[in-house]
Amino acid sequence: MNKTTDFADIILPLPLAQLFTYSIPEELKADVAIGKRVVVPFGSKKFYTGIVKSIHNTPPTDYSTKEIITCLDESPIINSFQFSFWEWISQYYQCTIGDVFKAALPSGLKLESQTKITVNENFQAQEVLSKTEEQILNVLKHSKDVNISTLNQATGLKNTLPQVKSLLEKGAVSIEEQIINTYKEKKKEFVRLASNFNESDIAAVIDGLKRAKKQQEILHSYLNLSKHYFEENALKVSVTELLKSIDASKGILKSLVEKNILEIYHEKLDRIDLSETETSGLKELNEHQQKAIIETRKQFEEKNCVLLHGVTSSGKTEIYIHLIQEQLQQGKQVLYLLPEIALTTQIINRLRTVFGNKVGIYHSKFNDAERVEIYNNINQNDPENAYQVILGVRSSIFLPFKNLGLVIVDEEHENTYKQFDPAPRYHARDASLYLAHLHKAKTLLGTATPAIETYYNAKTGKYGLVELFQRHQNLEMPEIIIADVKEATRKKQMKSMFSPQLMQMMETCLENKEQIILFQNRRGYSPYLECKSCGWVPHCPNCSVSLTYHRYNNQLVCHYCAHSIHPPTSCEHCGSTEIEDRGFGTEKIEEELTGLFPDARIARMDLDTTRKKMAYEKLIYKFENNELDILVGTQMVSKGLDFDNVSLVGVLNADSMLNYPDYRAYERSFQMMAQVSGRAGRKKKRGKVLIQTYTPEHPIIKNVIENDYVSMYNGQLAERKEYIYPPYYRLINICLKHKNQTLVNQAAAILAKSLHKVFGIRVFGPQSPVINRIQNYHIVNILLKIEKKSSPSKAKWILNQHANHLKSMDQFKSIQVNFDVDPM
Ligand code: ADP
Ligand code: ZN
Ligand code: ZN
Predict the structure, then answer these.
(1) Disulfide engineering: 139 pairs with which of 154, 369, 418, 639, CB 3.0-4.6 Å?
(2) pLDDT of 19-43, one tens digit each?
């Protein structure tokens, strides 16, 4: 007999630098295949769901393999595109493939070590069970929610996994059930006649139930409800419906099932509504849009990526829709990325009216089960029933696409495309270029305000560039008016946070029954409290930030660690009871408005008002439907939303954005102001934008007034070159964290010194970030700036070496070292 032992290399959801090899037991050989999930033991106590990366015959040389416990999938759930994509992400963003695995799969498809074990009810032992096995079965029979750790405790054994595994093999217990349980398919129970039932028997059967009146009634009712009960087209009768119809209990139905008269069956219900929706055709493109789409197609012949630089309301979305249609006609999939969940609400409706149920949507407000369902839908092999267009936020780049033809990155300049924490710290726009490359697909980046890097890539010929500077129906760009807050304050003309110009414009708007959007990029009531006599400011005990005051629940909250306390009644330093709030967030604006315009209908859109699942949808719907007059919001209101009746947009404080200590602050401020302005005056008439600032002469404010992206770009480009920033240089941030400040400073100094030996003046720091302590971890950064033309992979390799060397020193073992490639 040929006794080869097969091995599988498994990706585990852990930050491990290598894959682990496991042996495949004989009975699993038929099942285990690349791309399937398996359960494997890890360490002495734990087990995890892993993904089979490869199968081979070479045992590892430095450790003896453990066996795979079970295989979870009938067919692979990770395809070869995804494996290549994961590998690229892990290399480019300097993280482990396990980190990518963790980010890529919805948690409903992952098994944690805490997974429960259940006993199989109808198990009958064919062979003698060991004492521990008996003991385990006993525990399982008598308690609920048992996992490996509880079993270890209950039996007093160090590791019960071998016994559980043996019980699994004997068919006594299952874990598979439990694992899949994290994602329970929604199933509904239906009733039908038992299969051995003949039509001619029916009278006799009913007669036979004479003495069981209630059972007879159920049968009658079933025949009634199903109408054509012996034919193919018998109507479906659900158990609930049937029992309700005659007010019977399930026990009575069960007796009929036992008598082999009726049977119960289950059918899967899709949580996501895939029912047919009415669709209408595409809108005809206007002449400018037509030119743009022809140009886009032409550029795609030569370039893999095209930037569509189109002003707000120029109809970029209409162009996307036409391009999607072309892809679907070729049987290709399209990924449509959006930076913000709020935006998906409006776009999904526009897409559904054209593509009906071919469009799926994927974002973090969905629960796990729903995300698993979408994942599985895309993974299935039946193109008829699978989504062909996926509208989603950043993480949807990890879905199991099989034949992408086009990736659209809408509002490509948005920094929400970048994942900050945890690893992988990827940028969905940049990663999607690689994803598209794997599928030989094209990428379209769309925005009114391109990221400097993107525009640079387009200008230097790496990407195609298509411009669209006319709004649909030649609507004028909004008129931008500046209010000088410094002067108004001096003249004592400010009404709370509103300048006289803004007050007057709001009044006119409300009189005309037009809508207003007010933008302030701070949530909460006020950014901080301050003692009037000594200037003391309450800070978070865990982070180096002041606490934000939230009025609705009267709490001071840390926006970094969520620490919250009641506001102090007296100053901790001088005891004064005069503590005032400083600055203003969206909550305070809302409150002031309510006082100033008691008849206006006002709502607020920020993180605090949109935590619940349908909260965005409700707000947007209300505003669209003219049930609101004023919408106050953070950056959520600035992006891509399309409302017909907004004639005024107010930016309450341009300076807080401009003064932010970051090399992108000017670029961001321009983008934010230009985008939020774009919400004004869409369909009907020219809109107005009022920007309040202390610095009306600021060059960026000038660029915004003139809607002059290119000047802003040229100005920024010069600075980027001078101060060594992207697009001329690539940045990698090395972030060190530890609870002990002295230790982390020492480590950073040593690492910076050793990096300096290799990279010289390209190393900046160690430096303390603006917020240098979060959740009691002290943070120190070292920034590496490398020339665009030099090999980033080599630099990354060196960085890894040095970081590993640091971590190999005993005293620095516990220091966290993270890399952030292309930090935002
Ligand atoms: P953008 O994405 O560039 O901001 P949109 O695609 O949202 O612009 O277009 C702005 C508004 O104009 C939308 O309400 C859209 O339906 C409408 N619109 C744009 N192009 C057309 C067209 N060709 N036919 C009809 N309506 C259009
Ligand atoms: Zn004080
Ligand atoms: Zn905090």
Answers:
(1) 154
(2) 999 999 998 999 999 999 998 888 8
